[in-house]
Amino acid sequence: MRITTPFTAHSTAADVLAGIDLTGRRVIVTGGASGLGAAAARALADAGADVTIATRNPAATVAGTRTLPLDLADLKDVRRFAETWDGPVDALIANAGIMALPSLERAANGWELQLATNFLGHFALVTGLREQLRGGRVVMVSSGAQQGAPVDFDDPQFQRRPYDPWTAYSQSKTADVLLAVGLARHWPDDGTTANAMAPGSIHTRLQRHLDAATMRSFGALDDDGNLVTPDHFKTPEQGASTEVLLAASPLLAGVTGRYFGEDNQEAEVVPGGDRRPGAVASWAVDPAAADRLWELALTATR
C-alpha cells in the first residue's frame, strides 16, 4: 500500500518539522545556497540540526548553517569532499541540479553534464560517505520530469542520438529515482534509507537556462516578459516540505526505496510514457534498471 502523510502540497518545511527536535542531527544539503535547498536547510537548522551546505558557491550563506565547496560534476572534488568529511551524516539531501541545458555539454569524464551532475556526482558522494551514512537517510530530489524519459542504457551520453535538453533532464531525474531504489537494494544491512521525491514547480535558479517561450508555456512569464507565479506553483518553503519530510520526519522512519510526489504522499506508479500529475513512471522504480544503473555508476566512479 502507498504511504500517506497528514501533509499536503501547501504544507511548508516548517509545518513538517513542527515539534521535532533535531538537535545533534547532522545534515548535508547539496546545492543548498539558494532556492529549494536553502529553504530546506533553514528549516532543518531552525529545528536544531547541524546543517552543512555543499555548493559550488561557498561564498553564499544561509543563516544557521555552514558552507563547504563541492562541484558535483568533478568526481575528484566529490572524492575530496567525502574523504575529508569528519563524523556521521544523519541525512544527505541530494538537492543540487541543473536543468535543460540548451546545448550538449559534458563533464570532464565525458558524461552528459545533466546526468553527471544530477545523478553521478550524487552517486559518488553517497557511496563515498557510506560508512558515515549508516543508519541515516538519503533524499534524492527528482522531478515529475522522470515521466518524460527512461535512462537510455544504449546511449546515455548522447553520443549517437540527437541531444534534446528535456530528454537529457528527464533521464537524469529518472536516474535519481533509480539511485534511491538501488541504495535500498544494495545496502540492505546498513540501516540507511533512501527515497526520492518531486518538489513541484517553483521559481528558482534551476530555470536559468529556459528561454522566454518555454517560461510562457509554463505560465511563468507574461507577454511583457515579466515573471509571474501561476496558481500551481509553490514557494520554496512549500517545495522543501517533502525534502525535510524524507530527511527527518519520524513518520517515515525505516521507509526506503520509495518516491513521494509534490503533495507529500507516496506517488502512484504508472506505465512509462503515461504521464499523470504527481505519479512516478514504472521505469524509474524498476529494480532491474536500478541494478543496471548502479553497475554503470560504479564503473564510472572507480
UniProtKB/TrEMBL annotation:
Q: Which Pfam families match?
A: adh_short
| InterPro entries on file | NAD(P)-bd_dom_sf (IPR036291), Sc_DH/Rdtase_CS (IPR020904), SDR_fam (IPR002347)
Sorted alphabetically, which PROSITE patterns does this protein's record hold?
A: ADH_SHORT
What are the record keywords, sorted? NADP, Oxidoreductase
Instruction: Give the signal peptide as a residue range, or say none if absent.
Output: none
Keyword Oxidoreductase annotated:
yes
Is Transferase found in the keyword set?
no
Family recorded in the similarity comment: Belongs to the short-chain dehydrogenases/reductases (SDR) family.
Q: Which PANTHER family match?
A: RETINOL DEHYDROGENASE, WW DOMAIN-CONTAINING OXIDOREDUCTASE
Indicate what this protein is called per its UniProt record.
Answer: SDR family NAD(P)-dependent oxidoreductase
What is the organism field in this record? Answer: Paractinoplanes globisporus
